[in-house]
Amino acid sequence: MKTLKYILVLSSFTALAQVGIGTSTPNGILEVNSANSGIVYPVVALTATNIQTPVSNPNTGSIVAGTVIYNTNLNNAGIESVYPGTYMWDGSNWIPQFSKRQSEIFFQTSTVLRSASNAGDQNVPGLGSVENNFFRPKYNGFYRIEVRGNFGAGRVNSPVAGADNAAFQDGTFKFNFNGNTYSLNVKSISTYDDSSGSTIFYEGVWKESYFVIYVDLIAGTDYYFTLTFDQSAAPAFVGNGNSGNGLGYVGKDIPCSIEFTYVEDYTADN
Predict the structure, then answer these.
(1) CATH code for the part of the protein at 103-264
(2) What global pTM score does this model have?
């Protein structure tokens, strides 16, 4: 009888005991403590957020709310898509335990590209066809693409025919993305001052312009893009804007850039 009493007391103590891993003084029913290791959740490959499998309850029935796993799969299933990361089951759906954030920017690599009016579309260094750039979205849904072009006019003729010491030079940036072309027309002014007896030229005064588009993208897909510039004819500039100081500047001081930013998931209507 006395032995049985001790066993019952020991069982009661064990049932109420806290468990510590890496600590002898746990502050909860379970405390894990380590200076250089983490907890590894069960690793599975989900198929959709509204399907509990392949996770199962070893005691049969549905898995309980609060079950946590790490998913390795990327499944393009519309609003039920899953992405690599930690998920918790809420009783009917897998809820991601991470923020869906992605932003990536590409810059012009040569800060000054002199552009001629008779050269046609010229690759912007670092963003042209030579680099074979592509953007790979992490998530399904809408992305914001911001394209920034920087252009400054070259040197005007002295004197400027039919003008008051100033003239405009212009051109067009062309952004090709996923087979579609988007155009950005830009313009800059150059002038000179000869009031002191010697001529002082003001050229390369850059102007930054931009446009924004929203595109519906599929996660894990490579979307290739290029940025080119085509300068228009510039008869008021040295060499008709085709040579020497008459050439326009692309990316002077501030390089051209292309930035991709994740906006939101597919809606239920997709």
Answers:
(1) 2.60.120
(2) 0.81
